[in-house]
Amino acid sequence: IHISASKAKLIAEGLVNGDYTKNASGQTYGSTALAPIVGHEPDLIAVRGINNTRGYVKNEDLNPEINTAADYQRYLAELDANDWKIPLYDQEGNVIGAFEISKSEEIVPLLENLRENFPQITSLMYCINEKFNDTLGDQDIKCFAGKDHIEERMTSFDGKGELRFKIRPKTFYQTNSLQAEKLYHQAAEFAGITKDDIVYDLYTGCGTIANYVASLSKKVVGIEYVEDAVEDARLNSEFNNINNTTFFAGDMAKILTEEFIEQNGRPDVIITDPPRAGMAESVINQLLATKARKIVYISCNPATQARDLVLLQSKYAVGRIRPVDMFPHTQHVENIVELILK
Predict the structure, then answer these.
(1) Helix (H, G, I), strand (E, B), or coil: what is residue 104?
(2) Is pLDDT of 75 > 70?
(3) Strands 150-155 and 245-249
(4) Which residue of 22, 44, 165, 249 sits 20 to 30 Å from the alpha carbon of 171, by its own alpha carbon?
(5) What's 214's DSSP letter?
(6) Can you name the residues that pair with 318 across neighbouring β-strands?
(7) pLDDT at res. 216
(8) Active site residues
(9) Which three-class secondary structure state does DSSP give residue 311?
(10) CA–CA separation, 61 vs 133, rounded Å?
(11) Separation between Cα atoms, residue 108 and residue 102, nearest integer Å
């Protein structure tokens, strides 16, 4: 069972206050809404971890700092933004805890406390971030206990097999893993890939989409800015015995050139899943130049997606559109658009 941030916060507040049916403001929530969540052990581990760490921090008179500019919607649960925060992720019994604290010498005792009290935590990592934001791309992540990754599983497109993905701290992976499978299945269906097709997967992350569609195609070429993610993409291909993928790290606008296409084969299908900012105009111009039979555009920001579609319409007609609810109880969706060469 995957729960929304609002419900996770509700339960966390209830645990802190000793009442599962009320939040910090005393608002009462019916047991019907809470029943399916309270019975899900990983969620309970997560919120108990919040409660335990909150108590430890106060008992030890620590002073966790928080970046007020952080986007709290990224996190599954948060408590008292003026005091501290601990984002959590869980999947099939795996729990990852992350937190911010002001002094590096205070990290080890806190981690020891978590490890001793919550053996269910399978991956306990930390970094010392001295910047004024919470991005981890340029940080040195240290593994304190357990594995340096978690593992996600996804049913293959034909429904007959299973893909497994190793996810590390700097790796992008859809936060709603159950819906991610539906998202990728729909994208692959829109793509209409054949065994003779060369597919380009732009902004590939840890190669999730590339590896998902590899069995449908002749070859998949993935491009991603984050080098650690590209390393993970290659490992995930090996992990799944996939041998028709290649991955490249670097700036999309600089890598996706005509020379690159000549070396790696002209794409028949392009799947692009850019960040919220969308694609640079130079990248869009290169997509137009490829004259790929189809482009499947996945976006977490339909506003920038619509902007990019205007630029693509000179050569591509919009086919099917399918929003996927990846973020329950919010207005946000992932939107898939099928673009067909005119």
Answers:
(1) helix
(2) no
(3) unpaired
(4) 44
(5) G
(6) 339
(7) 97
(8) 300
(9) helix
(10) 24
(11) 13
